[in-house]
TrEMBL record:
Its EC number is 3.1.3.99. Its cofactor is Mg(2+). It comes from the Eukaryota. The keyword Disulfide bond does not apply. It holds the Pfam family ISN1. Belongs to the ISN1 family. This is IMP-specific 5'-nucleotidase 1. It is an enzyme of class 3 (hydrolase). One of its GO terms (biological process) is inosine salvage.
Length: 472
């Protein structure tokens, strides 16, 4: 399969959005907000449950039709569709979205339309869209890519969840490729990447997963620059896949080294100016393919007596740094793909982005966008998962607990019921958890797990399983 992509077709991570941190659009999604706003009016006007249910279903049917019309329009005419006019910067849709069915599933469990005083929230709309996307992938998913921090593991932490490891393993056994696509970049130093996912690799080893199965697991570092593949014949270590074997996309898409250096130099100088203007107590880090700022700790306090950022950075500050860099790169007219993003407690600029990485994996595995799902938590305008919407279907989660809920739902629609197929050997579970290599998180035991109750899919026999049920 040949994928022909020109530099001009690269998606902008911000689209036409104005550079203004006061713009609420930086922290919202246009489609989610359009649906939530329409539902708000439904709940405001209608006083009975039946009316709210009927009008909510009609609202989702309208948006489902708008998406169908958008998908049916020629690519050069999509900007004139009603959906594009209603939702600024709306992404591509590589599958239909059964929004009405997803709403029915959600409402039947959580009784949203039975509420009298609390209308639908942004998170609820996000969950319903996630359910719709999972339903749409019933017959097509061949590759699932994941962000790292706050998707497979908590921010700055390591993979250590037995249940999530078992879900990923079941998908690998079912001929689904899995890839961790992370902004973390350590060159081809496989040990540093392995450190973040040691728990998952230990799970593969303990379960003696066959080499041809684990060969479907990849790690792609620095957004799109350093690819590894799990090697079951080498004690489940990560083996590099060098550039000449896979490098993204087509000839002519390769990064110009001079522009890469210019890009990073410009990003670094912009960060240094921002550090002075905003009195940031931060540390600047320059890597081979990236440059970024992180909290500066004690040294930062010493160097900048009056300022902020030694222990953590405010969202507004991080967004300001990101948008300054994007503006500087735009004005410089550089054409090399890049990603400038707010990482939650740091800001980074990478050469390349996840659009390049995910599309490169599709090319390497001979897959099409509708066969790929990207799962991540950074889909807002300053997030680095946003670019994947131009090359894959997506699910927007907020934490690893939601990732597990999404995968559990996906296993159901793929007829791979986790309760019957994924029961863990209790001796293995006890061995791994007692050694501290993995930790079995009971869903619902922490406050962060509450939002995971949003993804509910019917089982094969038509019954439902509570999403916070931890029994095998």
């Amino acid at each position: 399969m040949a994928l022909s992509v020109s530099s001009a077709s690269l998606p902008s991570l911000t689209g036409p959005d104005p550079i203004n941190t006061a713009d609420r659009g930086l922290q919202t999604d246009s489609l989610v907000e359009a649906i939530r706003g329409a539902l708000h009016n439904v709940f405001l006007i209608n006083t009975t449950k039946d009316e709210r249910t009927q009008q909510s279903r009609y609202t989702f049917q309208c948006f489902q039709n708008l998406i169908d019309d958008y998908r049916a329009a020629p690519e050069d005419q999509r900007a004139q569709t009603r959906l594009a006019q209603l939702c600024r910067g709306v992404a591509d849709f590589f599958t239909p979205l059964p929004l009405v069915k997803a709403f029915d599933i959600y409402d039947s469990k959580y009784c949203m339309t039975s509420r009298q005083f609390v209308g639908p929230s942004t998170d609820e709309v996000r969950h319903i869209l996630n359910v719709a996307q999972v339903l749409a992938l019933r017959d097509s998913v061949r590759l699932i890519t994941f962000d790292g921090d706050e998707t497979l593991y908590s921010d700055g932490q390591f993979f250590n969840d037995v249940k999530l490891a078992s879900f990923l393993t079941q998908l690998l056994k079912s001929n689904v490729n899995i890839a961790l696509v992370t902004a973390a970049g350590y060159g081809y130093d496989h040990e540093k990447y392995e450190g973040r996912i040691r728990g998952l690799l230990d799970f593969f080893r303990q379960q003696k997963i066959k080499p041809h199965v684990v060969s479907r697991f990849f790690v792609l570092g620095a957004e799109c620059n350093f690819l590894f593949r799990c090697n079951g014949s080498d004690d489940y270590h990560l083996s590099p896949v060098f550039e000449d074997e896979w490098k993204p996309l087509q000839p002519g898409f390769r990064f110009d080294e001079a522009q890469c250096k210019t890009l990073l130099d410009l990003a670094q100088s912009t960060m240094e100016d921002a550090m002075k203007d905003l009195k940031l107590r931060v540390k600047l880090i320059r890597k081979e393919k990236a440059v970024g700022i992180v909290p500066g700790g004690y040294e930062g306090r010493h160097l900048v007596p009056e300022g902020s950022g030694a222990g953590g950075l405010r969202r507004e500050i991080l967004d300001e740094v990101v948008l300054r860099i994007k503006d500087a790169i735009r004005q410089a007219g550089l054409t090399v793909p890049f990603c400038a993003f707010n990482g939650g407690n740091d800001s980074w600029v990478d050469v390349g982005n996840k659009f390049v990485g995910v599309l490169g994996l599709q090319h390497y595995l001979d897959l099409k966008p509708h066969e790929c799902l990207h799962v991540g938590d950074q889909f807002l305008n300053t997030g680095n998962d946003r670019a994947t919407r131009s090359c894959a279907t997506t699910v927007w989660i907020k934490n690893p607990e939601e990732t597990k809920a999404v995968l559990r739902a996906l296993l159901r629609v793929l007829k791979l019921h986790w309760r019957t197929d994924l029961c863990l050997d209790r001796r293995l579970t006890n061995e791994l958890t007692s050694s501290g290599k993995l930790h079995l998180h009971p869903l619902g035991d922490s406050s962060t797990a509450q939002s995971t109750k949003a993804v509910v899919i019917e089982d094969r026999d038509g019954t439902e399983e509570d999403s916070d049920d931890d029994q095998c």
